[in-house]
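Practice problem 4.
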């Protein structure tokens, strides 16, 4: 009799897991508490996978041998509580995908900030070097679906803490931990140590043949290191000290040393600008070096990479004012990195759904670089409390209004930066929708 697998959540990862599980002979059932998008519903119907939306008989779920939980569903969800109470194993989609990856290798990248950019750059390095690879995970395409439909010898995966929460055997050949800052604490009982532990899970199954690339300059990572058993080859990255194995930047020169192979390049050759992107580029170069990619290929790829949409994306120059879309900045640390890389007087667009933000983290940078703050959210009290008296703070309630106001506050030679430090769900569907509306508003100036 085939194993009964229930999938909770019918988004990209849930549907991908359902397609792979069906292909591998599981008895699959998918349930989503909301409504499925038309495209996902069509995929399930085409594959003849039974599903339910909004309501379902409990026996359909509680008779499962195993449950795949979509990363967006928290532990406090009533169904998750019932499943746990019944002693049913819960795994993530990346765990299911890992079982069927065959001999393929995995580069898995996590961190509070910069993981999408680093994942995309690592993929670009591997692809430009002629490796047959796929970009999967939290960056937008289901790992399980990729394995079901178009398996590759190498997967470059962006992995969130939510995906790591429910792994059992998942083991990347190369694990990258970029940084750890307070984020998503609502999902971790407001205990920072729980979130740190989730991030370190990326290396928990690694062996002495694998690589663990981590940021040696990140105090949280180095202070937490002793709490975890790391069996893999440690390849740190740093801007503050020379490392024997890994990567470091000194005198504006990146030096990479992996398996006795050394290479160096000027940071001025990096396509990605800003100090935070030097860490991202360093991590990607070290990851590329573990794949035995030639030095000149890594250098070329680093120079030709184009930054991702909604991540410090230069939108347009409108009558001498530069507009930058950093809608992906959904926490204060991301906004700190964005401001740190700005070289022009800046009008900053902030606001949205606050995740317990501490705006004092960016106060110095605001004083140094920001001319005015334009709030774009339904509740802007915390932003006013933090910055009234520091700079001019103006409320708006749409992307159109925010862009128009920011433009009026700026002069030739200034920049307008959308880097909200908040989630987008008060006014927009998601950060992509927020970024898209921002760009449309800029284009209509």
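Answer key:
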């Amino acid at each position: 009799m085939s194993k009964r697998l229930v999938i909770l959540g019918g988004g990209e990862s849930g549907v991908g897991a359902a397609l792979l599980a069906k292909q591998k002979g599981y008895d699959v059932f998918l349930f989503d508490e909301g409504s499925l998008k038309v495209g996902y519903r069509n995929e399930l119907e085409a594959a003849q996978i039974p599903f339910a939306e909004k309501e379902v008989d409990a026996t359909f779920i509680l008779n499962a041998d195993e449950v795949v939980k979509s990363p967006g569903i928290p532990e406090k969800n009533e169904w998750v509580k019932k499943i746990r109470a019944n002693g049913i194993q819960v795994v993530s989609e990346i765990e299911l995908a890992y079982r069927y990856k065959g001999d393929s290798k995995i580069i898995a990248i996590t961190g509070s900030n910069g993981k999408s950019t680093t994942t995309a750059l690592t993929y670009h390095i591997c692809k430009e070097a002629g490796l047959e690879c796929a970009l999967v995970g939290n960056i937008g395409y289901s790992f399980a679906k990729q394995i079901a439909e178009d398996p590759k010898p190498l997967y470059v995966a962006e992995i969130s803490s939510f995906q790591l929460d429910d792994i059992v055997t998942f083991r990347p050949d190369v694990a990258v931990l970029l940084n750890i800052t307070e984020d998503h604490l609502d999902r971790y009982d407001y205990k920072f140590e729980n979130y740190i532990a989730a991030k370190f899970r990326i290396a928990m199954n690694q062996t002495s043949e694998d690589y663990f690339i981590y940021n040696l300059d990140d105090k949280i990572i180095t202070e937490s290191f002793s709490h975890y058993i790391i069996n893999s080859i440690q390849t740190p990255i740093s801007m503050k000290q020379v490392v024997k194995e890994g990567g470091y930047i000194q005198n504006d020169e990146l030096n990479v040393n992996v398996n006795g192979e050394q290479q160096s390049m000027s940071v001025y050759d990096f396509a990605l600008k800003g100090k935070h992107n030097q860490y991202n580029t360093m991590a990607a170069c070290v990851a590329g070096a573990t794949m035995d990619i030639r030095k000149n290929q890594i250098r070329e790829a680093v120079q030709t990479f184009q930054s991702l949409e909604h991540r410090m994306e230069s939108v347009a120059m409108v009558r001498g004012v530069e507009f930058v879309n950093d809608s992906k900045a959904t926490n204060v640390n991301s906004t700190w990195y964005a401001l740190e890389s700005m070289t022009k007087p800046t009008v900053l667009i902030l606001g949205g759904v606050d995740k317990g933000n501490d705006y004092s983290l960016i106060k110095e940078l605001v004083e140094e670089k920001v001319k005015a703050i334009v709030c774009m959210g339904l509740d802007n009290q915390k932003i006013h409390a933090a910055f009234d008296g520091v700079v001019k703070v103006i409320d708006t309630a749409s992307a159109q209004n925010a862009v128009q106001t920011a433009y009026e506050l700026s002069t030739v030679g200034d920049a307008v930066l959308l880097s909200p430090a908040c989630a987008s769900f008060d006014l927009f569907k998601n950060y992509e929708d927020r970024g898209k509306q921002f760009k449309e508003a800029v284009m209509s100036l």
